[in-house]
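Service request form, structural biology core

Requester: graduate student, group of Dr. S.
Request type: structure prediction, single chain
Budget code: on file
Notes: please return the result as structure tokens.

Sequence provided:
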Amino acid sequence: MILMWLGSFVLMMFGLTESQKHAAAFFAKLQKSFFEKGFETTTAKIFVRALDVVVLEASPQKSLYSGLALYNLRILNLRASNLIMCLNTLGAWWVLILGLLFLSFNGFFLLGICALGLIGVWQAPKAKLLLKWIFAVGVFLVGGETMLRNSSVVQTVLGQSDLAFFLADGRFGAVIGILLASVVISFIVQVEFWSLALALSLLLTNTISFNGALALVAGERVGRMILFWWRSRGLNQDCRRIGWQLSTVSIAGVLIGFLIAGEARSYFDFGFGSDLSAFQDKSLQFVLLFGVILFVQFFAQMIWGHFGSLAKVDELQDAKYFPPKWGEFELLSPTAMSWAKEKVHKRLSEIRYHLQGLGTLKEGQVPEHIQARLKLEEQQLSLLDQSLKV
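Core staff response, request fulfilled:
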């Protein structure tokens, strides 16, 4: 029976992830046009461009890594890249909407709308993409409803065990334990916002305390930023600096936001009952408090971004680019990388031209370390060029 509950959870996560992808794909052309218009203008225009890109991507994780990747490839300057990374939290708007729709809208109704596509009513590409987006939302809602119906299985498995009391305990020690566990799980589960789906399902069945549910989502945000720092360690000097500074500030913002959300809970007390409306109120309260955590994280990132964009950049950087695995793990925005592909290919062609020119020079005219640097950069860009073509 526990497999039925896990199956519902996977269905819910599948709908969440696919809805994010289809949302970004739906706005892909508009998003690409903002890239093509350029960022090298006034600060206000850079901010608007970055805001448009982040919001239309609908994925904080992809905006975060794409901003660093574009700077790492020397396609965007420091200000534009930092703004995309600092604004990344605003990409959670779509996930927050999904959380608000949870138990407030019937998923089967949305799946019924998608049946129109099966009989060929809408043939336009945009219409088909919109239907896929609606379908993914319906899958998320149906998965959540099914998960709640099977929640008695979890309660039966937990029973009167120590784990059951630990999850239901809203005191400081238990909450910190849940937060740390969520951080560790985030290292393993690469699906973005898995904690939101799990927290909603456990919270609405009174399996976990409210503070524990907030700790779940806060722990994932902390875990994501630790992973961001870890993955940026192999890049050039300036990207390494951005990685650890932004991660540190962002983690501090999440933890402060978590404490503020715990204190602010009393302002969102709806007085829960036992009917469906009480479930909806509880879900609404949780999503609002999760929004508080995200807002404080965003505020901390923007403070860092103001000073980080003013940092002096060393022109001589190591030729260390992000690995192709970033694309394999779906950490990068397809639209941003599609736009960057031509620029990467152009830079690769320039480096190969310089390498060919080295063969016509006399031995010793170009220092060995410069030759080795060009060859290393050519190897890394070749790998990236191939991965971006896939």
